[in-house]
Specification:
It is a single chain. It is built from seven helices and nine strands, in the order βαααβααβαβββββαβ. The chain is α+β, with helices and mostly antiparallel strands. Strand 5 and strand 6 form a beta hairpin. Helix 2 packs across helix 3. The N terminus is likely disordered.
């Protein structure tokens, strides 16, 4: 039987990235262990030490955390997605169903909201941390901030994951309505069931709900030229 070679993890940075991503998604170590088919104690070990993983274990952990192997390994973290690709792939693009799009977005994480504000002719696009709750996308923002001043508003919301090493990934675009959540009972429910952490520092006391009206997505898989 062939023994799979281990993958270096660049010291404790891997552990910090894995732990931070889990916290970002609001998952427990037991949740990640179940998704990755690992023992919870092993997940704890990965977050506290600098392990040498097999490719298979790294792949399962990345899938459980809804991220890429490159991100966990810290490969080109300052470069745009796909910038480090050195092969020339033949892209295979597949349209995703609404159900699959929502499934891919369901763990939450970082997305981008786009709004055409005031007299502007181009959209303003801002990164936000989001969670999915009852089929809607939820994030928090400042009550007197740029987004809050223009709500309710038609909006676009985009989430993607890209693995530059393999030229594979997916992108989902949601078109819908962004509404402020002002009912105190609804806010209490969101605090309990969708405890999203804001992207930036400061006061972010306003919950915003994006109600999907149209959902489209694409999955891209790179196939090397022969």
């Amino acid at each position: 039987m062939r023994r799979e070679a281990g993958v270096g993890t660049a010291g404790g940075d891997f552990s910090r990235r894995a732990a931070a991503r889990r916290a970002e998604l609001g998952l427990s170590r037991e949740d990640v262990a179940k998704l990755a088919d690992m023992d919870p104690g092993y997940v704890a070990y990965l977050e506290e030490h600098a392990p040498k993983l097999t490719r298979q274990a790294l792949y399962r952990l990345a899938m459980a955390l809804n991220t890429t192997e490159d991100h966990l390994l810290g490969v080109n973290t300052d470069a745009p997605p796909g910038a480090a690709t050195t092969i020339t792939p033949v892209p295979e693009t597949t349209a995703l169903s609404r159900r699959k799009c929502l499934e891919l977005m369901s763990p939450g994480g970082v997305g981008r909201i786009g709004l055409v504000l005031a007299e502007a002719t181009v959209p303003t696009i801002l990164p936000v941390n989001y969670r999915v709750h009852d089929g809607t996308l939820v994030f928090r923002t400042g009550g007197q901030g740029l987004i809050a001043r223009h709500l309710p508003h038609d909006a676009a919301f985009e989430v993607d994951r890209v693995d530059g090493a393999t030229s594979e990934g997916w992108s989902v675009l949601v078109m819908g309505r962004a509404d402020p959540v002002t009912d105190e009972d609804e806010v209490a429910v969101l605090r309990e069931r969708a405890p999203v952490r804001p992207w930036a520092q400061g006061e972010h006391d306003l919950y915003v709900r994006v109600i999907p009206q149209r959902v489209t997505g694409r999955k891209v898989r790179g196939r090397s030229l022969l």
